[in-house]
């Protein structure tokens, strides 16, 4: 595998790292962070570099310290599908040198903290807390991927774009009051949201025309009407929480009432109860993005 990177000499890569308090590193104590800093090597890569190719063995493990990575699957037809976007604190590579089912590529200029598989295994073996942190980080990345697929199912193109904007805003300081920069290339973002770049642009322009968002530039978004954006996205978390609370307070469903309602009436299988149908599961999962229908 050929990669292009800029060497970087860092005496203490952990001290000023953005990932120090997030993801895998956020679960480590000071002693473990010091050991990690001593054993790891930091490398910077340009946008577009493939660090691990599909079906290639993962001979090392990386922690993203800056920038965005994308996992991309190549199909026999030649089509590529962007599966997930990874941020600082998240992990690159698979355990025990397993072959990767997808490629790991730099979506923006990135910085990675690397350890060989042997050094990584020795580091984890040094303290049970490190194994726990590793499992937590892997589980969080898997759940994020699953949630992104589930949250995009059943939504049209405009709804998926609106949902993604709300998801990005939730990651911004101050809930994105000043707007946020779209770091992904349009082609990558369209692939992530399972649509064509043309459909993505039309959806953004429609939200801008309806004054739901403001496109201050082609790559900068500011939310103007969050309530309307939530309605468009079918962002159901508040309604589900209220519904669950009302069901708890309903005497007809209490354990001690001795008069339970029929399951068909309380579970929302009828189309007369839209708040308890298809996208309830998506709303309960929470924010995410992913999932090609348009």
Automatic annotation (TrEMBL):
Ranges where the HTH crp-type domain occurs: 155-227
Query: Where are the membrane-spanning stretches?
Result: none
Q: Where is this region: Disordered?
A: 246-294
**SMART domains the record matches:** cNMP, HTH_CRP
Q: Please list the GO biological process terms of this entry.
A: regulation of DNA-templated transcription
Keyword Protease present in the record's keywords: the answer is no
Gene3D superfamilies in UniProt:
Jelly Rolls, Winged helix-like DNA-binding domain superfamily/Winged helix DNA-binding domain
- Compositionally biased intervals (Gly residues): 285-294
InterPro entries on file: cNMP-bd_dom, cNMP-bd_dom_sf, HTH_CRP, RmlC-like_jellyroll, WH-like_DNA-bd_sf, WH_DNA-bd_sf
Give the residue range of the signal peptide. none
Q: Which UniProt keywords apply?
A: DNA-binding, Transcription, Transcription regulation
Record domain Cyclic nucleotide-binding: where: 24-93
Q: GO molecular function of the protein, one example?
A: DNA binding
Protein name per the record: Crp/Fnr family transcriptional regulator
Organism annotation: Alloyangia mangrovi
